[in-house]
Amino acid sequence: MAKYSPVLNARRWRFAPRPAGTVAMLAAVAAFAALGDWQLGRAAEKRALAADFLRPGPAMALPAAGKALPRYQRITARGSYDGTRQFLLDNQSHAGTAGVEVLTPLLLADGTAVLVNRGWLPFGTDRRRLPEVAVADGPREVTGRLSELPRAPVVLAAPPSSAWPRLVNYPAPEELAAMLDHELRPGMILLDPGESDGYARDWQLTGTTPERHLGYAVQWFALAATAVAIWLALALKREGEAA
């Protein structure tokens, strides 16, 4: 009986990658690696953003209209609440309970307005009865962080209404401005938890988390490794097989 020889068995295979397959593998690896590196960069950006969000830091005065500031910049604005025309942003949850976020216009000295998110309130047992959100309209100073109006991939139609406060579902800024009959500053202010006339304000960063970006990066790098493995498997040929 012939003995098994590792040397003879190894000679039954040869490494013969095809040029077209090699080019395809290199292109795939480069693309997957680039996407993975981009996701790592996004994770770093989100970590930095989270650090800025949690850092108290000093508040700066709300600048003149037209001047952009970084998201989550802590700012102070002076004006008067328009308690007669407020928006209730529907389909918002807190601690597993459905409710609304109260968006109150703050009328500024230059004639523009900025929305102040005063926090979350639950709906009662009857959605036809909106929460009570009255607020004094005297001059005041509010402090909070700049943010953007929330967006949803699917927008549900809100029931038509002309009454105030008005229930809305992810409206566009221009729609809100038209309803207010005021020039509306971009975004909104997330009212600081220590400020008066607010509701539940457990503000959290929105969007994809750093951990999710890291997970995506691992997936892209795994695809790059898979492309190399497939190329190696296809490049190994038995002796006698056509290249």
Shape: elongated
Helix content: 25-40%
The Rg value, from CA coordinates, equals 29 Å
Number of domains: 2
The CA-CA distance between the termini, in Å, is 33 Å
Strand order of the largest sheet: 3-5-6-9-7
Order of helices and strands: HEHEEEEEEEHEHE
Helical element count? 4
The average pLDDT score comes to 83
Unreliable residue stretches: none
Note the main sheet. 5 strands, mixed, barrel
User: Total number of β-strand segments?
Assistant: 10
- SS-derived structural category: alpha/beta
- Quote the beta fraction: 25-35%
Description:
The protein folds into 2 domains: 14-49 and 209-238; 73-191, no CATH class. The protein is built from 4 helices and 10 strands. It has helices at 6-10, 19-54, 173-180, 210-235, and strands at 13-15, 60-61, 74-81, 87-94, 97-107, 113-122, 139-147, 166-168, 184-191, 236-238. It has a 5-stranded mixed β-barrel with strand order 3-5-6-9-7. Strands 1-10 form a two-stranded antiparallel sheet. It has 243 residues and is α/β, with parallel strands linked by helices.
